[in-house]
What we know:
Cyclophilin
Amino acid sequence: MLAVRPVGTTAVLAELSGLHDVLALQALLLEQPLPGQVDVLAAAETVMVKADSPAAARRMAARLLEMDLTVQSHAEGKLVQIETVYDGDDLAEVGRLTGLGADGVIAAHTGQVWTVAFGGFAPGFSYMVGENQVLEVPRRSSPRTAVPAGSVALAGNYSAVYPRKSPGGWQLIGRTAAQMWDLSREQPSLAAPGDRVQFSAVRELIEVAEPLVAAALAAQEPDIQSGLLILSPGLQSLIQDLGRPVMPGSACPRPGRWTVPPCAAPTGSWATIRRRPSSNPLPAGSACRLWGTTCWRSPVRPRH
């Protein structure tokens, strides 16, 4: 481990020598979380660990420097099977760049198990590393403005599946009908960090309609115990929940919390309100104003 640096007051960043150490540290932290550990977010040469308090973050820094990354983790991620039609627009070019030809690229891609190192770019976009580097290729010199959802791609020593239509500069070698990101699942990301992925070649895909998440939620019986009644919307108002503490590894980071003071706040600038403490939630029945927004915390409803 090269160094451990603070990130704010409740997180530390471990700088490592390469992806091999990143995978080792990530596996150890997921298998045996440190005291106070909340989130683990890996990248190509770093691992950030979020703590539940400044004191826990300081203790983590010392613990991380003492960890032996040569110790093999006993945990093994689930194996995800992804059926792929290998007819990508860049398949021939990848065959030329690697010297394998199109058939050789398919054999190399399906002939090894890929491991999800980390997530990034978009929710469900998993950076996967293989067992060798025979498919290491550069990104396209000219990125595409729109890559279809389900495109199977290569760039550097990574492989990935585009979870939705988006711009992209990776080399496209195939396509899949697998839903890489589905909010109706307990774990929305099909392939989370630490999971293993096996691609298999098929002639055609069975298309499955995307889950109608909104319709499914609407069909459920409402069980709302409390809420927020907007009496008068104002200019540039923003309300945020407490976030997603277990999904940053899937490129769905935890947002900031709603930092309104626990009392009726006078109309003022957003910057002024943001600087106020956010440790206490709004009590029931409190009204607040953000640049002209008037809202009321239920179940206590205001009398008119």
